[in-house]
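Researcher: Next entry: DDE Tnp4 domain-containing protein (Gossypium davidsonii).
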Amino acid sequence: MNNGENCKRRRKEGFTADEDDGENDDSCSSGRETKKKDLNGIITSLILLDEQEKRDREERNDAFKEEKSVMESTHTKGTRTMLEFHSNLNDYYSKIDEADRVKRKKSRVKAATVVATASNHVADDGNGKSGSGQQRRLWVKDRSNAWWDECNRPDYPEEEFKKAFRMSKSTFDLICDELNAVIAKEDTTLRNAIPVKQRVAVCIWRLATGEPLRLVSKRFGLGISTCHKLVLEVCSAIRNVLMPKYLQWPDEDSLRKIKQQFEGISGIPNAVGSMYTTHIPIIAPKISVAAYFNKRHTERNQKTSYSITVQGVVDPTGVFTDVCIGWPGSMTDDQVLEKSALFQRAKNGGLLNGVWVVGNSGYPLMDWVLVPYNQQHLTWTQHAFNEKIGEIQKVAKEAFGRLKGRWCCLQKRTEVKLQDLPVVLGACCVLHNICEMKKEGIDPELKVEVIDDEMVAEDGLRSVSSLKARDAIAHNLLHHGLAGTGFL
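Model: Predicted structure:
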């Protein structure tokens, strides 16, 4: 039994003797001192453990910071090295392309010299007689163009021709006549020139089917590089010659008719266009890959996608009146709009004062852009307005569906370089307009349903006056019996 217990027991038993009291006090004091020393030892041990833990924690933090710094440095060096590699690779390919171009040019010059020399030898037969003997020609691979010859026959069935080229013979001939002065070539001593009709047919077939160039080459009996060159040349001619004529902003008389037609469709006054932005898939570019990465398509299709954008404004018949082509697929609809020439003209020149271009929720509400309500809890008036503005939005969406349906090259990644793609897309829009104006129908099997990946604009309200104007339009639609009840 320890001293503390003896002390308590003796106090309980009532010991009062002086000698006993002295002994008991000494015993109790000794017990308290022992406990105090033990407690101090425990506290000291805990303090030491806590300090040791702090030191260990600081050492781990220092090691982590050092490791993080090394990793960041390594990542920065790796990124810099990768960028330098891509830059050097692009320079290398550019030099190769330039060297190939120079080499081809020298080869053509050399071939022309050889042919000219051979012609001179033929003209002078060595007996002092100068004659007009048949000139030698550069050897060309013999390819069959029987399919095109069949299509080019006057008695070729109209339905089959339209199925192949998405347009009637008369519309095709119209395009050939319009482009004849620009794309026609003359025969040379090396080879006969490709006829204008065949040039246009190669381009339109390629756009309509999206077939690889090797299949286009077999079908028309031409070389692969020749077909590729023809597609770019004809598309460039369409953009330069036909776009100013068939794709332009309407004049005052046309705008008046467009307003009446849109108001007849929806009841919304002063609407002059329906606007929509779609994406065209592309092969991953060598530079600025992140800019062309399409996050929404990637998430929906579970496949990495890259694209460029096409923003278009159409009239009630689905004819494009304005297009903006080529901005990277990572940009939102409102960002593409701000980069467009239409936005600049509306901002600087007052092109769209007092009229509306109707868009979806991906565009902001501005003085000239009218969009639906997008808040969660809508009133009946707002529901009715959204229902009617949807009728105008559908016009542009269906026009893009016909555009992609006619020209299947827009549905797949093409073999065209990124810098040449806007020319090809512009040509598709012009050809679409010509077909729409000439009432060229489209096979229902070819129609494409455009998938809407619209996102609400970050800054959805750019004009308070437009907010009030939209509320007034919505009020008139509902209370004048112009809005339906499809939202109920």
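Model: Note for the record: The chain is about 60% helix and 5% strand.
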